[in-house]
Amino acid sequence: MRFVSPILLALSAVLVATPSHAQYLLAPMDAAQTNHLKAYGLTYWSLQRGLSAEWLLNYRAGSFLLRDRPEVRREAALRGVHVEPVNASQLAQIRATIEENNMESIILEKAPKIAVYTPPNTPPWDDAVTLALTYADIPYDKVWDEEVLQGRLKEYEWLHLHHEDFTGQYSKFYIGYAGQPWLQEEVERNQAMAAKFGLPDVPTLKKNVANEIARYVSDGGFMFAMCTATETIELALAAVGVDIAAPFSDGTPADPDATSKMQWDRTMAFQGAEVQTNPSVNAFSDIDGHQVNTPWRQPLGAFVLFDFSAKFDPVPSMLVQNHENVLPDFYGLTTSFRRDRLKPGVIVLAEEEGAGWVKYIHGTYGQGTWTFLGGHDPEDPQHQIGDPPTDLDMHPHSPGYRLILNNVLFPAAKKKTLKT
Amino acid sequence: MTAVDATRRTARARVAARAVALVLLWAGPAAAQAINGQGGQEIQQLREAALRESAGDLESAERILRSVLEARPTSLSALLSLERVLRMQGRVEEIIPPIERVLAEDPSSVVAHQMRVRTYSTLDALPELERAAEAWIRAMPRVETPYREIARVWEARGDYKQAIRVLERGRSRVGRKDALALELGDVYARAGDLDRAVREWDRAIGPTARGFSLVRRRLAMLPDGGASVLPSLIDALMRSSPTLERRRAAAELAIDAGLANRAEEIAKAVAADLPPDERQGFLVEVARRAEGGHLYRLAYWAYSELLTYDGPANQMLAVRSRVAELALTLGDTASARENYLALEKAFDADSPERRQATAFRIELTAREGDLDKAIQEFAEFQRSFKEAPELDRLAASLADLLLRRGDVDRAEEVLGRLSGPRTSLVRSHIALRRGDVTAARAALLAAAPALHGEEATETIGLATLLGRVSPAGAELLSRAMTELALGRTQDAVAILWAESGGLNSVERPAILEFAARLADRSELETEAERIRRAIITDHPQAPEAPAALLALAYAVSARDPDAPEARELLERLILEHPRSALVPQARRELNRLQGRIPNS
User: Fold this and answer.
1) Taking the model in full, what pTM does it have?
2) DSSP states of B112-157 as a string?
């Protein structure tokens, strides 16, 4: 015994009543889990090392079944993820339970290659997705306008859009933050990029970028967007030959008839929206139900996740796996999506009951899929510029952040499964 | 208008209109008197417009307000309300024609000029903004207001150069060197030109320091609270026309900035020059501010100076108490003792204040070296105040001094039958000196419940340690505690480190951990690290190992945040001691080192 490594001894102590020859490790995602967010990272880590995994939809709040290897146990211990050894007989019981209930097992076979659309040098604390990916230790590459316009998106399976304003109006921050150095820097950076590609102004640059992103999705990519990116990429796609940007960004006033000229057949999620062409109103259109920076701002409520049939609707089921199904709402420059602006066929994943808006939507576009989640930061509901960054170590069980991470693992599912 | 639009507009209008209605209800009668004849009707219309706005009927509100302005274009209430209603409808540009009509009738209307400039800025219509600004300046070229307001608009747009140009032009037209100095200081500060900001704020303060409070407010609003500009501003106040008022302002700024020497130098010079009636007030202000800012030497000086003044007895005693306490804080035991003696004499014989002052004075006598006299006075004090709460602290203090001299028996004698946390702690030291571990432990446990914070934790920790050690370990601890009692922490640590090698594997890591904590307390970083490395190398499974691993990881990462060793130590803690209460802390530190959470 004296020659046995103390680390191996300790590892065995991590697991209560550890069978010595378990085949699998179950990372439960219900209240027993000690770090929900890092469990996604552990699963991704396993996939990266060629160890396939299973996502047990609706089984103990969407648990993960991992291969039992010493290195997996070590990683689980370091990350603080609770795992339970599962032997053949226990696994048979789990499978029987899944078979008899609204549950399903989804094979995860490949760690998706992730790109985050964000300006260079942006710290991860600036965006909920990069926060979640960083905390869960899921690697990602940063891409921005240059990479998108050079066609580099095809190198990635999953794309997240930082809270970008694709109308090219710098999120209309000039209304409240004119003169701030960070805004000036943002303006200069974007103008330099437009000039680099020989484009006349930033709104035109962003429209081109939006079109490239739409092409990426249409060709089979997975796209996830939050906050302003959801609404503005749609506006940029629909505004073909229409000036929807304030003079601040392109030197000319927006077309007063912009709303009637929008081509909604080009968009993924929305239709029939009224474009906000007033430069002094801090909103982009009437797609957002909350309009946080306007005098007609709506108060926050709570949103409810839908319960889908895991066997027949595995995709939406994956996206709503959670240990809580009623979540407190949180603001963003785009907080929610008005129901009457959704295209037919859009799948609503979460809504505020009784309200005229929904929170979380999903759909297909060409060969690919997109998911939109309104709001900026699930753990900072009133997020203001200059707020301290969210420390996810204080929120390891965040149900809101779980929604983001569901999207990250979703492209890891076996393609065959996704097509059913 | 769709139902959704109506709901939306109702919501946005309600709050604003309620406020307007309230203003009108309050201002109604007065305004009605001011506008004779048709005034009553106008007030009615304005109320009606406010009610419509409150109900979300912005179109009707707008129609009524326009009709008011039709009848009387100079109605500023109607103009302001219309501007708000148009803004909510996203048509703020339509306010320009009504503003132009006001200005046609009253070219000096400040409100109309200001609205026009701000509206053009909102619309990003820069040529129009410049024209409107010129028109306003032409209308009142020698008044500061237009320059100030126009500059604010440029400043809000981030165009500091233009804002400065406008303000400089205003200064030249107004014809006063200090005109618009406050505003120029603000813009220079926002533009990052702190030298010029200081120059302008110096001007704004002026020779009689009239603008001091305004500038001070500005400084407080700077991101660093003014720390970067205060030294230069103080210099400027002392250098250019250093009137008494400006020097007083400089003294206050130096105290606020925590510039102890500078504050003391200026305050003493100012106090010397002030007439007696003003001097007392100045000293009170300096004493209060300096104490609040932890400038104890300056506060001590100011309070001491105040003692030379006559005043009501209770006030003078309060000042004397502050002087005594500050002397103690500054380590001037002679002055402290002298002041406590004065307090003792001044308070009534049976008063608690006198008793407290006596106890302090006896303790200070002992600290100054006259221990025998102090012990004598203590005996008298004990006879006079048998139940005094000060007895515990005073006896412990005297016994501790005796222990430092090696006089254990006499120390025990001073403690006598007194009980209390301080005397219990000294008893534990005496017991350790005599090798009586059980008695030492009992005394520590008796003291612990009445202690607080870190002291309580350390006392319980030492009691626990004593419960685990052999006679050999106890003897070692006893020797270390003796060194500690004499203020020789490094020697205490050295004894524990050098002589613990022969102890068994249960007590050695415990004693080493105790030594490492002593080293931490005295900032003996190298010793602390060496001791902890011994714990994790020689006793990796000891209960003390997790704390040693964590402390070492902190120490290594503080030296080099990228050092792989810090991570390895944390991983060892997590993997080898999974049940340790320190594992969550280790994971957090690991996350921080790997950049997975923000530094906070």
Assistant:
1) 0.65
2) HHHHHHHHHHHTT-HHHHHHHHHHHHHHSTT-HHHHHHHHHHHHHT
